Amino acid sequence: MVHEMIDGTYRQTNLPNESPEYLAKREEVRLAEIELRNARERVAELRRAMPKGATIQDYEFVEGPTSLDNGDAPVRKVRLSELFTCLPSPAGRGIKGEGLRDDSYAPHANPLPKGEGEEAPDRSLVIYHFMYGKKQTSPCPMCTAWIDCFNGIAHHLAQNVDLAIVAAADLPTLRAHARTRGWDKLRLLSAGESTFKYDLGSEDREGRQDSMISVFTRDSDGTLRHFYSGHPWLADDIKERGIDELNPIWNVLDLTPQGRGTFYASLDYGTKVQAARR
Questions:
Q1: Which of 9, 112, 94, 59 is nearest to 226 (CA)?
Q2: Which residues in the chain come in under a pLDDT of 50?
Q3: Which of 34, 117, 235, 236 is the most buried (most CB within 10 A)?
Q4: 111, 154 in Cβ contact below 8 A?
Q5: How far separated are the first and last CA of the chain, in Å rounded?
Q6: Residue 69 in contact with residue 238, Cβ under 8 Å?
Q7: Topology (CATH) of 60-230
Q8: Which residues, in sequence order, are CB contacts of 243 under 8 Å at separation 6+?
């Protein structure tokens, strides 16, 4: 019965006691889900088809050791170009970069991509702008929830893209928060004295922070480009949920009869799995 069209309804279960009213509404939801899926595909296609973005400078960040258990030193400066784990080649293919990522810094979950010979696929660089540092004196709980999710899927993302988290906070402060969250699979960077966050739009001149995700590419000649950035704000009247697609928390809640309600992530419940007290 499941996956069969019966009486105008594409059945999702083998339960024999689902009412006609339920089945009719479930079919309405299924058709809406198809529309949503197709809309997502159209948006992704439009995004992929965008022309080359603006060229950008090779911003400098500050990075600590790979393992959070090894303290915060030694510290090194790292360029945006070094966050790509493939070197560019004229043929449009990435070449594995010998020494590009030092094992004492490179997260084990984000290795150089595997490939035959010396070639590996071109990769995009994805950076999440963490609202922490300067005017944002405490870590943003919502950003923290996003980064919790990224940490959980970092080993999957590493098969196709390079990923890093950038904050305005100084390195020891950023890494201290990361320890409380168990972010052991992410490349954690401080923007330091660079204008990276301001230029991209996740920081204003007064140091107020905003959440944001950005994608960068590199041409065959090494030219760095901004490809795409997304904010929670989509318009003056849409100030939230602009990047909800990237987070499973609210998408899972939307499956339930209770929905997402007014839930906001909080640092208070930490990382322990426990039911909220009502």
A1: 59
A2: 91-120
A3: 34
A4: no
A5: 40
A6: no
A7: Glutaredoxin (3.40.30)
A8: 146, 211, 213, 230, 231, 232
Q: What are 19-65's pLDDT values in tens digits?
A: 999 999 999 999 999 999 999 999 999 999 999 999 999 999 999 99
The reply to whether omega before 172 is within 30° of 0 (cis) is no
- Contact assessment for residue 79 and residue 60, using Cβ atoms and an 8 Å cutoff: yes
Q: Please tell me the pTM assigned to this model.
A: 0.85
Per domain, the residue ranges of the chain are: 1-49, 60-230
Q: How many residues does the chain have?
A: 278
The radius of gyration of the chain from alpha carbons, rounded to an integer in Å, stands at 22
